[in-house]
Amino acid sequence: MTIVTDHLERLGVRFEVLPHERSETSLEEARALGLDPDEVLKVLVLDVESGLALAILPASRRLDLDLAREALGDRHATLASEKEIADVFPEFELGALPALPSMLHVPVVLDPRVLAHRKVTFPAGVQRESVRLETERLLRGATVTIAPISTTGTPSTEDGTATSARTLAAGQA
């Protein structure tokens, strides 16, 4: 059991624990688990004016920092350093921050491509264990901003969708 699985149990969320080889990136995690990288979540920490924020997107995608800045309303947002992450989230191993907005208590922007999957997988706070759960449960007890923040390689959205954000409150998944 980890702090992540304890949190999910307290919320009454059904989940599955997936042990695997040590992985430091979301793509390594997907490979270690034999899962499609679209169903494994990447959690990136951003340094914003108010402190830190999270960007959550599929492991197969790349963060478009300009889109994340727009969604967060902070044109100066940057990727946080490993030291900042370790200082604010010492209970988690680096590279294993869980995609749980209800647990981390920082602003979160979620790429809508995450919602296209029935189930998603993300680190359980350690680099050798992941959690798989129904995507709608990911948002339980949290408020997140849903906005396109990812790309496959160019800094524009693939499908031409508008980059305006919408905020989704707890229970509206």
Description:
The structure is a single chain. With 173 residues, the protein is α+β, with helices and mostly antiparallel strands. It has one domain: YbaK/aminoacyl-tRNA synthetase-associated domain (YbaK protein). The chain has helices at 3-11, 26-33, 65-72, 82-88, 101-104, 135-138, and strands at 16-19, 41-48, 51-58, 62-63, 78-79, 108-110, 119-126, 129-134, 144-146, 150-151, 166-168. A hairpin with a 2-residue loop joins strand 2 and strand 3. The longest helix has 9 residues, at 3-11.
List descriptors.
173 residues; alpha+beta; YbaK protein; six-stranded mixed beta sheet; three-stranded antiparallel beta sheet; 6 helices; globular; disordered C terminus
Shape, principal axes of CA atoms:
globular
CATH architecture, please?
Alpha-Beta Complex
What structural class do helix, strand and pairing data support? Answer: alpha+beta
- Provide the residue-averaged pLDDT: 87
What value does the Rg take, in angstroms?
A: 15 Å
Order of helices and strands: HEHEEEHEHHEEEHEEE
